[in-house]
Amino acid sequence: MRMYDVILKKRHNEVLLPEELQYIVTGYVEGIIPDYQMSAFLMAVMFTGMIKEELGVFTMAMAQSGAMVNLSNIKGVKVDKHSTGGVGDKTTLIIAALVAACGGKMAKMSGRGLGHTGGTIDKMESIPGLMITMSDEQFINQVNDIGVAVIGQSDNIAPADKKIYALRDVTATVDSIPLIASSIMSKKLASGADAILLDVKMGSGAFMKTIEEARILAQTMVDIGRENGRIMCAIITDMDVPLGYSIGNAMEIREVIDTLHNHGPRDLTHECLVMVAYLLVMSNKGDYHQCYGLVQDALESGCACESLRALIMAQGGNGDVVDDTSLLGTAKYSYDVMATTSGYIQHMNAEQCGIASVMLGAGRTVKDGPIDMTAGIMMHKKTGDAVVVGDVLATLFANDESLFEGAASIYRKAIRIGEEKPVLGDTILEVIN
User: Fold this and answer.
1) Are 77 and 104 in contact (CB under 8 A)?
2) Most confident region among 20-24, 113-117, 368-372 by mean pLDDT
3) How far is CA 171 from the centre of its chain?
4) 3-state DSSP helix/strand/coil % of the chain, to nearest 5
5) What's the whole-number mean pLDDT along residues 242-252?
């Protein structure tokens, strides 16, 4: 088999055989296939795409290039959830606690922040003492004991994806739907869950800017999962507005705790309840309406809050944070961003809001760079809200006062105020089930 022939075949939009797809991944990881040939193949995929059967094999080959997590010793259906990334997206811990409180099993590996979007693992590390690494045996035992574990991804999960993504990053092939889908799903397949729910974000704060792009990506990932025997569901959610009211690590954990105490933001609570209901359906806990009722009961009874406490304590963290969020710490300085015109907030550029938070220290500006866990933004007004001159739109938090001017300028430009009140719809845009 020659890589030249495989490239030519894909360039002519012919369907590749399973052994050819396996050869591409294995050969590249082992150094048999050079970067320039892999670059040519990626560009061919960019222009001709892949059918779902090809993508299923290609993605599993990427997953099998490293460790494949075996969760068979966990009793019941093991569920996982993945978000394509958004601003203020702190749903993972809320969903994990609710699933466990309803008798489900969530064995989750999460990532760190990427660009303007926050990472679950970074947020978790703002909880005093909490550990995000453990052995496979500890991971499995914890899920069996309390129904949930959330840890960082192993370096040996889908190494082919890491190598291929680095090449895509410098060859203008990042925004290929098949390659995006295979990158995400290779890590999900390697993580061992039986059922996977995908939260595909769409809007100004997401990587997918239109509903059409989000729909294609969602369906492509669902197809990959089904080709490899997984139970799949994708939910397209609105990221034209930051989710909830907080952006930043410790600040978002506060909002997680508020939500599990049943007094969180309406949009955040709504999205989490819907997603957990579908995860419970996938766990064979009943039909959608029955499962939605189970989730509401878990939230209102306080069981979900106790599940979060159990998760934190099992992973070495201080469980008292569930009752006293001051343990998370607070930034030294704050700065109010005021409205300079009156009217209604007609649009928020969520990506720019996220960038403003990064400028305050809440995200990374370089790979593996430091993060200020207490920095971030508390929004007081969002799309649809009425404002008058002098109203506080948001409060910025940082431990360096010199960061406020630049971040405030970016945030102001992200807010558009006009005379007409916008019509707001449901943040759950579509379900692909």
Assistant:
1) yes
2) 20-24
3) 25
4) 50, 15, 35
5) 95
Q: How far does CA 51 lie from the centroid of its chain?
A: 25
What lies within 8 Å, CB to CB, of 71 at 6+ separation is: 78, 107, 140, 143, 192, 193, 194
pLDDT per position as a tens digit, 302-334: 999 999 999 999 999 999 999 999 999 999 999
Q: How far is CA 180 from CA 321, 327, 342, 365, 371, in A?
A: 37, 38, 42, 22, 26
pLDDT at position 228 over 80 = yes
The amino acid occupying position 292 is Y
- Three-state DSSP at 254 gives helix
Contact between residue 55 and residue 181 where contact means Cβ atoms under 8 Å apart: yes
| Segment 130-143, tens digit of pLDDT | 999 999 899 999 99
**Which residues face 397 on adjacent strands?**
334, 376
CA distances to 118, 123, 204, 377 from 364, rounded to whole Å, are 9, 13, 20, 15
Residue whose tokens read 């469980």: 319
What is the C-alpha separation between 335 and 305, in angstroms, rounded?
A: 31
Q: Structure pTM?
A: 0.93
Query: What is the spatial distance between Cα 323 and Cα 244, in angstroms, rounded to a whole number?
Result: 20
Catalytic residues: 82, 161, 168, 183, 187
Instruction: Look up residue 396 and give its two tokens.
Output: 């910025």
Does the pLDDT value for residue 369 go beyond 80? no
What distance lies between CA 177 and its chain's CA centroid?
A: 17
Closest C-alpha to 268, from 291, 241, 234: 241
Residue 396 phi, psi dihedral angles, 5° rounding:
-95, 145
Strands of 117-272, DSSP E? 148-152, 195-202, 231-238, 246-247
**Higher-pLDDT residue of 112, 4:** 4
Residue 394: closest CA among 431, 429, 360 = 360
| Model confidence band, residue 433 (pLDDT cutoffs 50, 70, 90) | confident
* Sheet arrangement for strand 343-348: 386-387, 343-348, 415-418
Whole-number pLDDT of residue 113: 64
DSSP 81-148: EEE---TT--HHHHHHHHHHHTT-EEEEEE---BTTB--HHHHHTTSTT------HHHHHHHHHHHSE
pLDDT confidence band for 85 (50 / 70 / 90)? confident
